UniProtKB/TrEMBL annotation:
It catalyses: an N(4)-{beta-D-GlcNAc-(1->2)-alpha-D-Man-(1->3)-[alpha-D-Man-(1->6)]-beta-D-Man-(1->4)-beta-D-GlcNAc-(1->4)-beta-D-GlcNAc}-L-asparaginyl-[protein] + UDP-N-acetyl-alpha-D-glucosamine = N(4)-{beta-D-GlcNAc-(1->2)-alpha-D-Man-(1->3)-[beta-D-GlcNAc-(1->2)-alpha-D-Man-(1->6)]-beta-D-Man-(1->4)-beta-D-GlcNAc-(1->4)-beta-D-GlcNAc}-L-asparaginyl-[protein] + UDP + H(+). Keywords: Disulfide bond, Glycoprotein, Glycosyltransferase, Golgi apparatus, Manganese, Membrane, Metal-binding, Signal-anchor, Transferase, Transmembrane, Transmembrane helix. Mn(2+) binds at residues 236, 344. It is found in: Golgi apparatus membrane. Disulfide bonds join 176-187, 258-261, 309-413. Gene3D superfamilies: Spore Coat Polysaccharide Biosynthesis Protein SpsA, Chain A. InterPro entries: GlcNAc_II, Nucleotide-diphossugar_trans. GO terms for cellular component: Golgi membrane; Golgi stack. This is Alpha-1,6-mannosyl-glycoprotein 2-beta-N-acetylglucosaminyltransferase.
Length: 422
């Protein structure tokens, strides 16, 4: 009997010694599960701690097979986390503001004109201006840093070909060029449908637009929870003083006047047109000058990532017209006023117009006749809507202009769509 009691006592002592070990083990398991759950969701990796942000992004890069970043690329990514400037001048945004995104390349003469026009826009001080740079160019940066008329945030595409001088997505020494035969030349690359290999300067246009869209809608802490509309303009767009007020009216009228419209535009889809001057609103095919849409539309676009990334055309807008919009299953209309509130003034396109002698702004001059009627909101909420159907332009069936045949570009494009999603 004494032996039995002694054995029980030993068992109880052993159990009490073992109990803390079991508790610590279980606590470690629960903690590990909690950390894994957090790390799996890098859709919202932003915090005030820049080093933590970059650590999260490093994990994301490994999972998504993004190109190995240069030191400069990492610096740009860090700059993207900085808060907007001019908060001391404009500490708050209007409750129903429409965020404006200006995406730029390297055309400082154009950008000066666009920024000057924005400075005259009524209501610009109520909103946030995001300037998305395709790489980094000091002259472009200085122009934006001089903006004082609203809150302004700069973001820089960290995977722009312009940031990678010796490797993909820039120019790699082993890349095929023009119509090289990869087998004979022992070079890297897959040609487009016309037999041409990639040109980093060309493909950067589509990459920047897609990176920007994903970053603005799903990555930036300033906009990833934005429930309203976002306006997108380019460095060769001249914005009229009444543009913002007109856009506020259009986005408010759209659900009632044109519920089937996906967007609102500041200008006609024909970039050479200035509007009809009628007493009516216009519903037409979506244009690429001053277009604005909400998160619901962005989600529809994002679901067509495969269509966007594999269509062999280096132009983002032609890609949208020829393959993404048609895949929605019904016509993609946008609502606009009968008078334009924005004008496309670029003559050269691409990345030209960098210097005084090369600037393609009608021989260096910008001559826009902004009439008195275009300085104030000129859209009447009582107007009916005229629908333009069967307009000319790129449609389903167009096979693309090429320039987008390299499988590496396809993969990078797909990866951009997953950057902020687990």
């Amino acid at each position: 009997m004494a032996n039995i009691k002694k054995n029980r006592l030993k068992d109880e002592v052993a159990f009490r010694r073992f109990l803390p070990l079991v508790s610590i083990t279980l606590l470690g398991v629960f903690l590990l599960m909690f950390l894994l759950r957090i790390n799996s969701n890098f859709a919202t990796p932003f915090s005030d701690d820049f080093s933590q942000v970059l650590t999260n992004r490093s994990h994301a890069r490994q999972m998504l097979s993004l190109p190995k970043q240069t030191e400069f690329s990492l610096q740009l990514e860090k700059r993207n986390q900085m808060p907007p400037r001019n908060l001391d001048l404009y500490p708050s945004l209007d409750e129903d503001h429409i965020t404006i995104v200006l995406y730029v390349h390297n055309r400082p003469q154009y950008l000066k004109v666009a920024v000057d026009s924005l400075s005259r826009v009524v209501g610009i001080n109520e909103t946030l201006l995001i300037v998305s740079h395709d790489g980094y160019f000091e002259e472009m940066n200085k122009i934006v840093e001089g903006i004082r008329f609203c809150q302004v945030k700069q973001i820089f595409a960290p995977y722009s070909p312009h940031v990678f001088p010796n490797s993909f997505p820039g120019v790699s020494p082993t890349d095929c060029k023009e119509k090289d035969d990869a087998t004979k030349k022992h070079c890297k690359g897959t040609p487009d449908q016309y037999g041409n290999h990639r040109s980093p300067k060309i493909v950067s246009l589509k990459h920047h637009w897609w990176w920007m869209m994903n970053t603005v809608w799903d990555g930036l802490k300033e906009t990833k929870d934005h429930s309203g509309h976002i306006l997108f303009i380019e460095e060769d767009h001249y914005i009229y003083p009444n543009a913002y007020r007109n856009l506020q009216i259009l986005t408010e009228l759209k659900p009632q006047k044109c519920p089937h419209c996906y967007a609102a535009n500041l200008a006609p889809c024909d970039v050479n047109a200035r509007g009809e001057g009628w007493d009516s609103l216009i519903a037409e095919r979506m244009g690429n000058v001053g277009y604005t849409f909400n998160r619901t539309v962005w989600r529809k676009i994002h679901k067509k990532t495969t269509e966007f990334c594999f269509f062999d055309d280096y132009n983002w807008d032609i890609t949208m017209w020829a393959t993404v919009y048609p895949s929605f299953g019904n016509p993609v209309f946008t609502l606009r006023g009968p008078r334009t509130s924005a004008v496309h003034f670029g003559k050269c396109g691409l990345h030209q117009g960098q210097g005084e002698a090369k600037a393609c702004i009608d021989n260096g001059m910008v001559n826009f006749q902004v009439e008195e009627i275009d300085t104030v909101a000129n859209i009447n909420s009582d107007w009916e809507v005229r629908v333009f159907e069967h307009q000319p332009g790129y449609k389903a069936g167009f096979k693309g202009w090429g320039g987008w045949g390299d499988k590496r570009d396809h993969q990078l494009c797909l990866t951009f769509a997953q950057m902020y999603h687990s």
